[in-house]
Automatic annotation (TrEMBL):
It comes from Kineosporia corallincola. The modification 4-aspartylphosphate is found at D54. PANTHER family: TWO-COMPONENT RESPONSE REGULATOR, TWO-COMPONENT RESPONSE REGULATOR ARR22. This is Response regulator. SMART domains: REC. Keywords: Phosphoprotein. Pfam families: Response_reg. Residues 2-119 form the Response regulatory domain. The keyword S-adenosyl-L-methionine does not apply. InterPro entries: CheY-like_superfamily, Sig_transdc_resp-reg_receiver, ST_Response_Regulator.
Length: 120
């Protein structure tokens, strides 16, 4: 399985990848992108099976990234990993086609809860 991790913070991308490994989900091929625009470009060319994305990023936010992806006809499972939280954001994410929102700080159990059914 190919997983794209998009976050403008290199440290946060490393934490996400480490947490995926702790959750037993790290045996997959993982590629990183530094913002939503680069994430969209990598998604178009690399065709990941799952996308994890921050919400707030320069150049293209996570929700803009998701909306552009869906507008292009790409239905890759997409989950936000963000410090933003709340019902409004979760509803906005779901309406745009996200499978969920994992709120920072997160645990390996939170990754398994949201991603376990998508990642085999």
């Amino acid at each position: 399985m190919k997983i794209l991790v998009t976050d403008d913070s290199k440290a946060m991308r490393m934490i996400v990848v480490r947490t995926m490994r702790q959750a037993g989900l790290g045996k997959h091929e993982i590629v990183e992108a530094e913002n939503g625009r680069l994430g969209f470009e990598k998604a178009q060319e690399w065709k990941p099976d799952l996308i994890l994305s921050d919400w707030n990023m320069p150049e293209m936010t996570g929700i803009e990234f998701l909306r552009a992806l869906r507008a292009s006809g790409d239905n890759t499972p997409f989950c936000f990993v963000t410090s933003e939280g709340g019902d409004d954001m979760a509803e906005l994410a779901a309406a745009a086609g996200a499978i969920g929102v994992i709120v920072k700080p997160f645990t390996a159990e939170a990754f398994m809860d949201k991603l376990g059914s998508v990642v085999s």
